[in-house]
Design brief:
By secondary structure, the chain is mainly beta. It has one helix spanning 18-21; strands spanning 38-45, 48-54. Helices cover 6% and strands 21% of the residues.
Length: 71
């Protein structure tokens, strides 16, 4: 039996900005994703499936706590 790696909880969908919800910006730090990113996971909101994306590889929940960085 192998141990599963610990995964950080996904951010609360309702606390994300629309650009983060639509995978245009990182769900963790609000940086523009462009052509690069990694999948954080899938969430359901009001019956719809959304895929949350994050910067790669530097952005992690440990180093960027769901900040709303001003533009």
């Amino acid at each position: 039996m192998t141990a599963q790696p610990a995964t950080a909880p996904l951010p609360e969908f309702t606390s994300l900005r629309p650009r983060q919800q639509m995978a245009m910006d990182c769900a963790l730090c609000s940086a523009r994703l462009g052509a690069f990113g990694r999948v954080l996971g899938d969430v359901r909101y009001r019956g719809r499936l959304f895929r949350l994306w994050a910067c790669t590889p530097a952005c992690t929940p440990a180093c960027t706590p769901y900040s709303r960085r001003p533009r």
